[in-house]
Amino acid sequence: MIYIPIYIKNYILGASLYEKKQRNLKIGIFLILTIIILLLIIFIPSAKSLLIFIGILYIVFLTLLIQYHPKSYISFYKKNIINNLIKNYDDSFNYMPNIGISPSLYKNAEFEQYFDRFTSEDSISGKFQNKFPFTMAEVKTENETKDSKGHSTYTTIFKGLFIHITLEKNIPSKIHIRKNSLLKNKFSIFNFKINKLDRIEMDSPDFEKIYDIYSDNNIITMQLFTASQMQMILDFKKKYKIYPEFTIKNNSLYMRFSSSKAFFEPRPFKKLLDYNCLNEEYKFITSIMNICNLIINNISNTADEL
Fold it and tell me: CA spacing 20 to 30 A to 285: which of 56, 137, 148, 174?
């Protein structure tokens, strides 16, 4: 159970009124569509032969109608509900749903250097432990391909959350932790060789099955990524089916969490203030923040010893 302040800030009334407005609009569309179909069947005899086809289209349309959330609905959810959910974790954090990060910041993390289209939104910024500035945002990168007629098609490379944390001290090592992938490794190995990074054998066989770790200093890498830290990452992956990836260089820690889901948006068939959904969102945010804080602490302790 979590304490969510939105329940005592009159957002129940605001959300209920907003949902009622959206529900009435959808009911109106449903009634108009139903009347039109009935009139077609009654006054146009040939329409009866297409009854099954019309019925299928009718069901598909209703399903899309129920799931559809207009921009104003999503905006209300983000500004009035997600914002308070984040504030509940830390009141100093700032959530800006229409602001993202720059492509240059994302490229600095060296997850991938080449993409044709970059979009970002849902920025969260603040300071971990009141002294480590961070920026988190949803990111999507895409490659463009063109056919013989010049028509463009975009393929998603990455979609998920990206985090940049500024550390107090420089780390005299560069570390890349990437999800295992045969295709990715063919390109990554070349990139890592250019950056003079070697593959590091970690003490966790389970971690090794999922991740490739590259670094220019194996001692520092093992000091930073302890057994408890690797286990937390594995537990997060098991629970959310999301693979965190990391880059550490200079005084920066970069992380990304790949997921096809849309973060911080209302779910289909659920109310705005559905407690279970909000609880899941809060736990997901808390899990990410816990990983961030654990890595920050390990880096700070290791940096003091170097």
Answer: 174
In contact, 86 and 285? CB cutoff 8 Å: yes
Mean pLDDT of 36-51: 67
- Return the pLDDT at 1: 46
Burial zone of 177 (CB within 10 Å; 0-12 exposed, 13-18 middle, 19+ buried)? buried
Chain centroid to CA 271: 21
| Token pair listed for 121 | 């939104």
Rounded to whole angstroms, the Cα distance separating 28 from 31 reads 5
What's the confidence (pLDDT) of residue 69?
56
- Treating both helix axes as pointing N-terminal to C-terminal, what angle do 227-240 and 275-305 enclose, rounded to 10 degrees? 160
Please name the residue ranges forming H helices in the chain: 11-43, 51-67, 71-77, 83-89, 103-108, 182-194, 205-210, 218-224, 227-240, 275-305
